[in-house]
Amino acid sequence: MIKVKGKVLPKIPVKGRVLDRVDRSVVADALGAGPTDGNASMRQGPIALFGLRQALAERLRSTGGRPSLGVSRRQKIPLDEADWELLCRIAELLSDEGMTPTPGQVAGELLHQRIHQVSVEMEYAGSDQLRQKLGIGTEKRRATG
């Protein structure tokens, strides 16, 4: 951990108008960009596992017993056997003397990260625009927990 010593400088006020957001299709057209292979992001390599391990290390907190992710809700999420076995292998791979995450903790962190990515995309593109792209009707449904 880095500890900064010394006086804190005052914030710099930003003056001027906020520019409108440019639609990504306008930028893509201007650059002559085309569609890419949607599966390219699936090939991530060891750095993705390192990032997962770092995120787990930051979120795992000891409450007197086994460290947990500090969540207030426990939810059963169905998985097939192959997915559970893979989570077990990932948890074992990420384990060392300082941290031994469970397969459930790995699954929770992966789900947390993916939900965040989807929410950013929803915010950026807008829910209605995404529903149109997905071919989903405009009526809104609310998920129940």
Mean pLDDT: 77
Uncertain parts: none
Taken from the alpha-carbon principal axes, the silhouette is: extended
Q: Give the tally of β-strands.
A: 0
Gyration radius from CA atoms, angstroms = 21 Å
Helix content: 40-55%
Largest sheet: none
Structural class: mainly alpha
Describe the structure.
Helix content is 46%, strand content 0%. With 145 residues, the chain is an all-alpha fold. It has a domain at 49-60 and 77-145. The protein starts with 23 loop residues before the first helix and ends in an 11-residue tail after the last helix.
Short characterization:
The protein is mainly α and 145 residues long. It is built from five helices and no strands.
Features:
145 residues, mainly alpha, extended
Topology:
Layout: H1 24-31, H2 46-59, H3 81-94, H4 103-125, H5 127-134
